[in-house]
Amino acid sequence: MNSKPVKLSDIAKRLHYSTVTISKALRNHPDIAPSTIKKIKFAAEEMGYTPNIIARNLSSRKSNTIGVVVPKIAHFFFGSMIEEIYNRALEYNYEIILTVSQENAEREKKHIQTLMAMKVEGIIISISQETKNYDIFKLVEARGIPIVFVDRVPKIDNISIVSVDDRDGAFRAIEHAIKLGYKKIAHFAGYTDINIGRERYQGFVDAMEKHGLPINPEWVCHGGFGERFGYDSFMKLYKKNNLPDLIFTVTYPVALGVYSAAKEVGLKITEDIDIICFGNAKVQSLLSPPISCVNQPTDLLAKSAMELLMSKIKNPELVGINNIKIPTELILRETCITFNKN
Amino acid sequence: MNSKPVKLSDIAKRLHYSTVTISKALRNHPDIAPSTIKKIKFAAEEMGYTPNIIARNLSSRKSNTIGVVVPKIAHFFFGSMIEEIYNRALEYNYEIILTVSQENAEREKKHIQTLMAMKVEGIIISISQETKNYDIFKLVEARGIPIVFVDRVPKIDNISIVSVDDRDGAFRAIEHAIKLGYKKIAHFAGYTDINIGRERYQGFVDAMEKHGLPINPEWVCHGGFGERFGYDSFMKLYKKNNLPDLIFTVTYPVALGVYSAAKEVGLKITEDIDIICFGNAKVQSLLSPPISCVNQPTDLLAKSAMELLMSKIKNPELVGINNIKIPTELILRETCITFNKN
DNA sequence: CTGAAAGCGCTAACAT
DNA sequence: ATGTTAGCGCTTTCAG
């Protein structure tokens, strides 16, 4: 074992061709006669040739690779998006280098630098919840590397964005609740530094204002996008004996946190306190009660992001549409479907 | 914009050093005087130097990269494992190339070939549920590329494996159920071609036999590791009016499918039919009722796999321990905790 | 259709 | 402590 890899020159020697011919034949270059292509491919196969992609990339100045940066993996939303990005990449015949920031701005920056060093041809990124310095993104652009922001995007002009219509989605959820009769509505809002937090909060505000409802500052909580935040926020209000009738959470994990907390203190969701959230998950319908939500189609997000990135890679000059909004959909299950408080 | 990247020679020219000196300085090579290192690093930073990893890898014949192949991403078990692998890689200062087989043997093979072509220094893989031809794995070994199999492993001798003690875990779950009083126990077993299916099934059989319980062939279902399989299997038994008292599912997603199906036909879990599963998920405790399960510590699995792979990379000759069994843990929640049938 | 020459950007080995 | 030489394995001109 440990046979050293066969290279082009080995095949060339064996077949009495030049390495160039072998190289071209293996890539189906029209220069080469079909018959020789067949012969060469056969020999390559037989000899167990594996191309050295590193050498190829260096030589061709093309990596055929795109970089992806996400805050998390073990999270349904990102998991599905990544999966779909991988599926698309396969179609485009591109490799993916996936990196995970773990919601950490510094790691994120380091990953982006690595991706640049690896000469990725483009980047798809969903920024971390704590990213505030956008210099690195500008640097990427300055280097001429196309970058597409998905879902969580920085506030910079003239960048390519693929996102869900957060504001509208939140608005519709809240308006739906208000029409049901809800007035005491809380919003566990995450971070408003970042677009998804900001926009969803805005949608919430829009709906409340449109219907002349006051916003109770104590019921607008900030702090994160994960379960922990949902749990803590709920407990805070609970301990103050200041629970609303309905909680609108900025993400699905936050809602999960609320479920945990409610369960812990013995409060029944729907009867004692109702909930609706932004974001979806397959298991959501198995929660008890199944939660109603604003669905974000991850497949469409991923698909659009890939398409946009590819078109930017193909036509660096072309500007075109660079802010794609994917519509959301209000999925009603068993929460927030009737108002049954006092 | 689109300034072409600065390279070593650019810095060399500016500072009147050779490229070699620059190269060494940037890598903190002891050859270079600390003062020059500082000077060079400063200039590099100022000029916005980014190393070309592709060139570096080609030249040094070392990619500093390890390849990972998993069947799925949007699945709690794999998601957490991947996340942990990424965390570890960061510590070891290695890059990860993650690929997803989507439970497809052909894709898996293609990915492995790509990883080899990318000159990864090692591979961590959890094989697809339909992988039956193991030639490619032998080829990897023959090429001298260390490979570690995690959780889902092929049946080949003398390979490095990190897995949970599936048989024992399943045995304990079933024995627990039997002691509660359960006798009519079904097993939704997935595929027994693959180790996890085979071993868990064996554990089930062991426990049943030990306690002299008959195994009803109609209650041992095969077909997959996902929700669909759980749903379908349940429905099949339901329609035949042949439901057991307890279902033991081979994975967590399969249990999810059972929950869905039971809900759909109006059967209450625990009261009408009870369940326990292999595998865990964060949201599991939020299922209603929270499911009891055999927990597989993903962090430990990932950690051990990385450690094992790293030691194989460092010492290619060294054999040492190459079959690591991680113990499981029976987590009792609200299913399968009392026997309350007729 | 095929091949010879040159070089991608970097690093290892060996001078100096 | 710094530089010279050579080459990683491939692809891109450009000749023939």
Strand order, sheet with most strands of chain A = 2-1-3-4-5-11
What is the radius of gyration of chain A computed over CA atoms, rounded to a whole number of angstroms?
26 Å
Strand tally of chain A, please?
A: 12
Terminal CA distance of chain A reads 77 Å
Q: Largest interface by residue count? A: A-B, 58 and 58 residues
Any idea of the CATH class of the largest domain in chain A? Alpha Beta
According to CATH, the fold-level topology of the largest domain in chain A is Rossmann fold
State the major sheet of chain A: 6 strands, parallel
Structural shape of chain A? elongated
Q: Figure out the total of helices of chain A.
A: 12
Q: Give the name of the CATH architecture of the largest domain in chain A.
A: 3-Layer(aba) Sandwich
Instruction: Kindly state the percentage of residues in helix of chain A.
Output: 40-55%
From the structure provided, what is the oligomeric state, counting identical versus distinct chains?
homodimer
Considering the protein shown, what is the CATH homologous superfamily of the largest domain in chain A? Response regulator
**Helix vs. strand class of chain A:** alpha/beta
Mean pLDDT of chain A: 92
Which stretches of chain A are low in confidence, meaning pLDDT under 50 for 5 or more residues running? none
Number of domains of chain A: 3
